[in-house]
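Worked Example 4.2. Read the sequence first, then its structure tokens.
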Amino acid sequence: MITRRVFRSSLCYALLPLALVGCGGDSVIARDRKPVVPDGGVETSGGGAPLDGSPGVLASVQSCDTASHPIPPVASALCEANGWCWDSPTPSGRDARSIARVGDATWVATHGGLLSYDGAKWVPIDTPVKEPTMLLGWSSGSALLVGDSIALFDGKTWTPMTIPRLEIPPYVTGSAPDNLWAIALLQVDGGSETTTLHYDGKAWSIVNDAPPIVNGFDVVSPSDVWAYAAEDYYVEHYDGKTWSTIDLGQSGGASIVWEAAPNDVWIGGANLLTGDLPARPPGPNQIRGRGILFRWNGKTLTQVALPDGVGAIDAIYGTSPNDVWFGTTEGEYLHWDGSRVSSAPSTETRSVTSFAETKDGKLFAVAFHGQLEGTGAIDAYDGTKWASGRAGDSIDYPKKIWGSAWNDVWAVGTDGLRLHYDGTAWNVTTRASSGINGIWGSAQNDVWTVSDDGSIDHFDGTSWSTAYQAPGVLTAVSGIGNGELWVTGDSSSSGFDVARFDGNTLHPYTLDFQSPVAIYAAGTRDVWVGGTSAVRHFDGETWSDPAGLEQALANAYAPIHYPPDASVGGGEGFGIFPWSAIWGSGPNSVWLAADDNLVVHFDGAHWSYYSIGHFDNTGAVALGGCGDHDVFFASDTGISHFDGTAWTTTPTNSALFTGVWAASANYAIAVGSDDQILRRSE
């Protein structure tokens, strides 16, 4: 027995890869004998029945499309390295955190670096801060970036900035590069302490008379500073000498202050007495409750009515007293026209955290889920509605993908989402009755999906229909190409772990591990299943540990020197691998992927392994490809391509990818959380 790393429970929902499909040419059936339905005569090791002595049928072999399909990227879309461009969301699926106007430019801080809008599209800018989370910009062209480090831009060059004894990236805001205010966690004797700091252009100093609890500031000038705390019923104002308090009453907690003029100040936040809280976590200022809004005229405070049920106010931006925008923790965009606040049409669901306007008057915003959920996006206002750049303008997201050709691709996912790509655009078609967990097909008129409600649906080239209704959740599907399907299920609801569908009936099997989530059928007698604790192979008679896999894993992890007291293939011991993706191009080329960015390959006789170490993977993975050696591996931070010799990695700095499909080495599509669709077409 060898040991490997303990799996993370977040992979319990890990996803299936693509199975074999015909692509770029005619499908080849290696043998055309009809499969034999299990007769229940002999139990397998997993509790099902073997097939009879016939050799069975092999799946159609997926070849690569040899033609070139250099489709231009979507207008305004950002392209990453190696030909990968964003189809959804546009302009970018990078994890956006903050947006600001910098001189005549508009910049966005993303997990992958800084982006600048050139009037038509977003382009990367090289900075010393590689993972910025906060951006400040000023009309002078200066800027400040905060993230894995801090740097100040003077309009020409970046200068690193250091805050002594700093433990984690601070919150920083300011009216100019020489008037910065920060909330920082500093090292002190025996621990750490949250401290308010001020930067005067030369050095940082502690603000000893600052309010004791502060979540943020609105800094207008050295003598005009507002401080607020999300869970307090007041805001405080600094006039350069002393602090004064403005009471918000017993219902309001402030998460943002924006001053249009000394006698025109907007204060937004949440109604702390509201029992009906938003379903999602709060925004960056950690405030919960339905929205509340106040306006201060320099003497008196007035509460401003909001549309019913909106989330807490998390961002404010305005161009005049009669043109003010508000963003909420529920992704709502609200507008003040001088007389009332109304909702603007939007498909956003994330917390709107910042606004910025370009020099030609185009308005953008960044919406962000929070530190632990999903990613941030760049939204745009077209004068009528806010667009989040999602494919098909859908709030759901694709989990799996399959295509018969470069211009016939299906992406399926949450809430029954079916997106179809025709080589030009993605369009939402009819929805399934519940969330879709897997897709497989053999041709344009033979596409299959499995869903949360147990439905096995079929597309005949014209319409979708339900071919079979299982009793519980189905998690993955693969097929042979002659009407035979193999599916995995949640045994607690479906009553089985894996089953063979002959076109009319499901023939179930019970495995020795639970929660299978990936399946690949190379043939009637050659089926692979993976899950959160094991991989099993079916040879037509029994389900068993794949021969040689354990030794391959031992070789892969020998340098790590884990304790030698755990099982490899499955069981409940320490170090269980979460095998969340399987893909193959035939019996002699099967690929498996697990957490730790481990990919293994079976050539029909021997196992080889690859450790793709460029990613910091924290979630499920996906596999797809075409032919014998073009394989794509996707996870929560990027995509790698194997050309038969070596892996090439493209970091994407985005949310989790859960499905990938390829027509060729130069044409592939990955899909995943937050409506991500990333396409390579060269």
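Now turn to a second chain, presented in exactly the same format:
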Amino acid sequence: MYKHDFAQRLKDLSITLDLLLRDFTERYDLKVGMKYRVVENGNYFDGYFERYETGFYGTGIDVWVSFYKQKIDGTPSKLKTGTFISNIKDIYESPF
């Protein structure tokens, strides 16, 4: 019974998430190590794209988009920041 075939259900969910992340990556032309400005709900931050982290947060599945912070000299820091995909309004290559 599909209801109790958790491995298959996770596989199906993984396929859906993979397609979503491919579309998101393509839409914003994200590349690991590139610098971007991320706009979310009236705020923004600059960072270097690192990776996605998918998980169950609160009441549902969301994807955390992880970035390395920027040092004062403009190079990537070892410190991270990020936001959930559901909060992102726009991402573009940072001109700064």
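Notes for the reader: The helical segments are 6-28. Residues 6-28 form the longest helix (23 residues).
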